[in-house]
Specification:
- By secondary structure, the chain is mainly beta.
- Helices cover 0% and strands 54% of the residues.
- The protein is built from no helices and six strands.
- Strands 1, 2, 3, 4, 5 and 6 form a six-stranded antiparallel β-sheet that branches.
């Protein structure tokens, strides 16, 4: 289980955004990086994400539900 505690950095270019911060992975302190792409409406089936942590956890894919919205 990954629990993001804060966001210490945020960078956005168009509809792509990356944010970083501190997290807990199964209770162990670490850092995280999340990258998202808002590829249109509705987000499910289109928008993408990637998460990685300093402890080596990683996941990525296309949203199966929900909607990422990156606004300028």
């Amino acid at each position: 289980m990954v629990k993001c505690l804060d966001a210490t950095a945020y960078v956005q270019t168009g509809t792509h955004a990356v944010f970083r911060g501190n997290a807990l992975v199964n209770g162990t302190p670490t850092t995280y990086r999340i990258s998202v792409d808002d590829k249109g409406e509705p987000g499910a089936g289109m928008d993408t994400f990637t998460i990685s942590t300093g402890t080596g956890y990683g996941a990525s894919g296309i949203l199966t539900q929900g909607n990422i919205q990156v606004h300028g």
